[in-house]
User: Fold MaoC family dehydratase from Nonomuraea purpurea.
Amino acid sequence: MTTTAAGLAELKALTGADLGHSSWLEIGQERVNAFADVTGDHQWIHLDPERAGRGPFGGTIAHGYLTLSLVIPLFTELLEIGGVRMSVNYGLNRVRFPAPVKVGGRIRLAATVVSVEDVAGDGVQMVVDFTVEIDGSAKPACVAQAVYRHYA
Assistant:
């Protein structure tokens, strides 16, 4: 279920809120290949199913940064923000990739709003904890703390 915030005051009221989970997203080899082409990261562990099948993960895996980049579309399932003129990614406080996402696996996003505080320029800074879960795995694919700025 999507949480909706209309304006900065409603964003501030989300401090501490558990935004739940996104839907599951399957990670296919075509997506991994396209990410490799865009980033220039053509390591065999991502692209060569035969060689990767003999490697430590038993098959190809998604790039960690591909997993991180998917936070953006998955987060839009969890939070819809209206009543602001601009929103920007301000940065990341931390990122870890505890477990690989095997090609053909499914991921989903869990999010919790850590804080929402005023910043100069009629805006707020929102800190969000993210966990990218892997279907059937006890360990997550990614844990990250992201910082966003929203301006009225």
Q: What stands out?
A: The chain has one domain: 3-151. Residues 29-39 form the longest helix (11 residues).
